[in-house]
Amino acid sequence: MLRYITAGESHGRALIAVVAGMPAGLTVHVEDVNRELARRQLGYGRGGRMKIEKDTAEILSGVRFGKTIGSPVAVMIENRDWQNWTGRMSVEEAEGEVEKVTQPRPGHADLSGVLKTDQDDVRNILERTSARETAARVTAGALAKVLLKEFGIQVVSQVTAIGGVVADTEFVAKPGDTEAIDASPVRTLDHNAEASMMAIIDEAVERKDTLGGTFEVLVYGCPPGLGGYATWEDRLDGKIARAVMSIQAMKGVEIGEGFGLAFKPGSEAHDEIFYNESRGYYRETNRAGGLEGGMTNGEPVVIRAAMKPIPTLMQPLRSIDIATKQPVEAVKERSDVCAVPAAAIVAEAVVAVEFAAALLEKFGNDAFDDIKAAFKHYIERLQGWHG
Fold first, then answer.
1. Can you tell me the distance from the alpha carbon of 265 to that of 228, in angstroms, rounded to the nearest whole number?
2. Tens-place pLDDT, residues 34-88
3. CA atoms of 20 and 292, how far apart (whole Å)
4. pTM, 2 dp
5. Could you give the CA distance from residue 33 to residue 243 in angstroms, rounded to a whole number?
6. 332 touches 314 (CB < 8 A)
7. pLDDT at residue number 92
8. 64 — phi, psi (to 5°)?
9. CB of 15 within 8 A of CB of 136?
10. Which residues of 210-232 are buried (b: 16+ CB within 10 A; e: fewer)?
């Protein structure tokens, strides 16, 4: 089973991603990872941390002579800002007194975290729950994308709304659009909406406020049958929803028309099935978003997510000091005003991992050439249904 775990704190020495279950024989280069890490740092409205960090990866294990060897792939991303935090984030006992953070931020994990773990310093929670952790997830997703590309599966994303500004739904991201989307400061194909999105971010900066928004991730090239229907845990749509919702600040996920289907009659909610000899089975609509019964159905997979505004504000909300129990303003940490464009990149990564895992579950995960052969046989069998 393809899976990953991340480790590291926001201002610690480094972030680590360990990806287990990668098959042997897949060509991997560190540039594949660095390219995705650079994309994660894009976006209008990012904070000062992006001026400090230029994320680069170092592959520590699992790759030899440019190919995976079947053992876990460990990747490290050093935090450049660590040099300014060696005292406050020391692994060894502190020398002298270190000021504790005792003002939890509304909307963050701060208060629940210290209550759960019986600690008196919010920093022990916020360092790990920071969205800085997503750099490690993007690393795992980069490796998954390398695998998917070998099978003609591509993952793209774009921002569909920031604050109250919504992009025109006519602009749908397709394979080959990533460069054009990344060239937009807010990662959208709708240039009219782009200007308005940037303006509303500027207004939030002036107010010392933050903004959320929505984005969509699309997966192209999936054959039907990835995922499963036999048990609840086999269902690929459930795995996708869990993965995307696990990203910091996500508050909603839908697949296809999602919540909109709840307001339609069944006659208008489902995708009718057609057939011809050249295309085989196909659908003229894609309201299901490429997933039916927990499995891909051969249409593009469409995933949309809603991100709340970042809870770290330069004009803090009211809170309670956990040491004195007195009213205070929440702690201010350096953060972004809007991170929706970056969140879409992170979502690409976690979605890529789920599709790579589904691919390997169906076709094996020991040797890359064996997986390619099994995939080829499956595609030929599907073509035989309408050959």
1. 26
2. 999 999 999 998 765 555 568 999 999 999 999 999 999 999 999 998 999 999 9
3. 28
4. 0.96
5. 20
6. yes
7. 92
8. -135, 130
9. yes
10. bbbbbbbbbbbbbbbebbbeeee
